[in-house]
Amino acid sequence: MGQEQGPGRVIRESKLDSIQVLRGIAALYVTIYHLKDVIPGGAPFRNEINFIAGSGPAGVSLFFVISGFIMVYITRNTVPSVRSIFRFTAKRLIRIWPAYAIITLAYCLLHSRMSPNPEWPSELLRSLLFIPLSTTPAPFYGYATLNVGWSLNYEIYFYLLIAISMFFSRLRWYAFFLMIAVTLVGIPTYYGAFTLKADKMQDLGAPYLNMITNPIIWNFVCGVFLGLAYYHDALHERIRTFLSINMVAPTLLCLAIWQFLSGFLGGFGPLEWGLGSTLVFAAFVFHYQERIQKFPSWLVRLGDMSFSIYLLHVPIVVGLGFLFRKLGFPVYSEGTAMFLLSLALTLIGAHLSYEYIEVKLTSYLSRWLRESKKLPVKEHADS
Fold first, then answer.
1. Which listed residue, 108, 121, 218, 290, has the most CB atoms within 10 A of its CB?
2. Other CB atoms closer than 10 Å to residue 14's CB: what's the count?
C-alpha cells in the first residue's frame, strides 16, 4: 500500500507494528484467562494470575476494536466493484476459515473421544458456517464447537456489513452507519430491548437476530471511528496533538490497564471493556506508534501468531488433560506446571499453525482463487 505523510505525522507504514503488538497482547490475555482454570485454588501463582488475567475476555473487545480499524485501513483505497467486493470477501474468508475449520475439526474429534454428543454434527456445521448455536446466553449465544468461535461469528458478520457497504461507493460509510443504526438502535428500540451492555441484551427469538443486534458490535464501530479519524487529516492531527499533551497518553493507558486489573466496568459493552480497549488502541496508534521507532520483534511475532494462539489454546489444554488421564497420570492434568506447559505448547503450536496454515495454505488458496478466476477467459480464447 502507498504511504501517506502529513504535518507532524510519521510516515504511515503498510503494516503498523503497534497493531500487531496489541493483537499479540490481546490473544495472550485471553489465553492466560482460560488456561488459569487448570490451577487449583491455593496453588502457586493462582492468585497472581487471577489478578493479572481476571479480565482476560477484554482481549476479545480489543480484537474487535482492532478489526474495525483494519477494515477502514485495508478498504480505504478500494475502488468499489463487484469484483473488488468479491475479492475482499474471499480474502477475509481465506484468512480465517481454513485455520478455524482445521482446528475445530481436530477439537471435535478429540471431544468425540471424551464425551460423545449426538448434537455435534449439527453444531459443527453451524459453527463452521458462523451461525450462533442458541438464543442465549448473550453475547455468546451457545458459543461454538470450538468455544472461542463465538467471537468469529461476530467477526464474519462485521465483514459482511463492510462488503455490503462497499456497494455504495463514496457513500459506503454512510451506508455502514445506517445499517448499524438500524440493527443496534432501531430494532432493539422497537422490541424495547435497547441496551449498551452486551450480556443484558434480551432474547429477540432468533439466534442470528440476537447476534446482529447485540451491543458488543459497538466495539467494531469504535474501531471504524478511529480508522476514519486516522485517515482524516484534521481529526488525526487533533487527536495526536491531544495525546501529545504532557502525560495524557500515559494516563489514559494507565486508566485502561487499571480497569482491566480491577474489574471496574467489566463486560463486553462499548462503555465497559470496549472503553478501555478503545483508549488503549487510540494511545498506541495515534501516539506511541509515532514515538517507538521499533517494537520488540518477539512482540510483533506474537501478534502475527495471535489468531492461531486464540484458536489453539483451548484444544491444547483439553488435549493435554485427556492425554495425562489416558496415560494414568491425572495428577499432572492440573496445577501451575500444567498451566505453564499448556502455555508453552500453545505458543509452539501457534507458530506451526501460523507458518503452515495461515501463511502457506492461505497463500496456496489465494493463488488458486486467482487462477480459477482466469480459467474461463483462457477456455474462451482456446475455443
1. 218
2. 8
Global confidence as pTM? 0.91
| H-helix segments, the chain | 17-35, 46-53, 58-75, 82-114, 120-128, 150-166, 172-180, 187-190, 207-212, 218-230, 233-244, 248-262, 273-283, 289-291, 297-304, 306-326, 336-353, 362-382
| Residue 332 DSSP symbol | G
Q: At what angle do helices 336-353 and 17-35 cross, to 10 degrees?
A: 140
Q: 288-322: buried (b, 16+ CB within 10 Å) or exposed (e) per residue?
A: bbbeeeebeeebbebbbbbbbbbbbbbbbbbbbbe
- Between CA 328 and CA 331 the distance in angstroms is 9
pLDDT in tens, 45-92: 999 999 999 999 999 999 999 999 999 999 988 888 898 899 999 999
What CA dihedral angle connects 56, 58, 60 and 63, to 10 degrees? -120
Under a CB-based contact definition with an 8 Å cutoff, are residues 226 and 287 in contact?
no
Query: How many whole angstroms separate alpha carbon 283 and alpha carbon 164?
Result: 30
Q: How confident is the model at residue 118 (pLDDT cuts 50, 70, 90)?
A: confident
Q: How many other C-beta atoms are found inside a 10 Å radius of the C-beta of residue 245?
A: 9
Cβ neighbours of residue 146 under 8 Å, at least 6 residues apart? 100, 103, 104, 107, 108, 127, 311, 314, 315
Contact predicate 31/343, CB 8 Å: yes
d(CA 89, CA 72): 14
Of 168, 201, 199, the closest CA to residue 187 belongs to 201
How many whole angstroms separate alpha carbon 112 and alpha carbon 64?
Answer: 31
DSSP 192: T
Sign of CA dihedral 122, 127, 133, 137: positive
Cell 497493531, located at residue? 19
Q: Which amino acid is at 264?
A: F
Question: Grid coordinates representing 155?
Answer: 467477526
